[in-house]
Design brief:
single chain, 305 residues, alpha/beta, Alpha-Beta Plaits, eight-stranded mixed β-sheet, 14 strands, RNA methyltransferase activity, methyltransferase
Length: 305
Amino acid sequence: MDSIIPEKFKERYCQLVDDPDKFLSTLMQYTPRSFRVNRLKATVDEIKERFDEYGIAIKQMSWYGDAFVSENPEIGATLEHFLGMIYIQEIVSMLPPVIMQKELKQAKFVLDGCAAPGSKTTQMAAIMQNNGTIIANDLAYGRIRALKFNIEKTGTLNTIITNRDLRTFPNYQFDAILLDAPCSAEGTMRKNMEVFSTWNEREIQKQCRVQKPLILKAFDLLAPGGVMVYSTCTFAPEENEGVVDWLLKNRPNAKLEKIAIDGFKLSSAIEEWNGEKFDSEITKTARVWPHHNDTGGFFLARVTK
């Protein structure tokens, strides 16, 4: 069944996971439908009541009360989705704003460095209750349209869209920064299995060459005492631990903080890859393997200055 998974992919990652067979079999199954309640337009109880009336079974996540999963594809056809009362979003995509909730509620100036199509931007705005200001930046002009649409649909009012290369972004200072970096997207294979057919290691090398200057620039934009979350939806150590290790080597004032989410299983970082041993602080970063929470794959690092 896993015959469409490239052998080189298996060789790379089966050595890193606790249960290779379960990891591979999970990759061959589509992720459950998931969404979050948009608190700018609805309450959790309101959505529960409405979906109960529709006869659509939904399951609330213990680790984040706004997050739900459902096996029913009709979620996307509901009035609540059309009106922006709920936002269909991958479970792992919700994690970066979740681990910076406290800071977001107090922040006056926030940067989403690679924002389109706006899932995390609008989630952060909801956490902030439209207070403060978010700069939602994206390099790809073609993706700005989706970002603008989602901001308007969700009732997000505290956000300004910019279309710039983050590496040349003006030197403002932000209280909180999210850098959900462009990546090889290996962790999205469960929702788009075509990724298997185009997967290659050259793409990994290409992406990490972009990610390294991005993380340095993002950190430079962070105000002293601020928090930055670096995240990707890939398994590659070169794009994850390797990029954070690059930050630590080039910005001595960068500090990592341990990440924990009650009720959600996070896995240990990779401490060494291809003969390169990473900084011991890298153990404070976290991975999400698909077979542990029935999700996509993800990586998280929480950085302070």
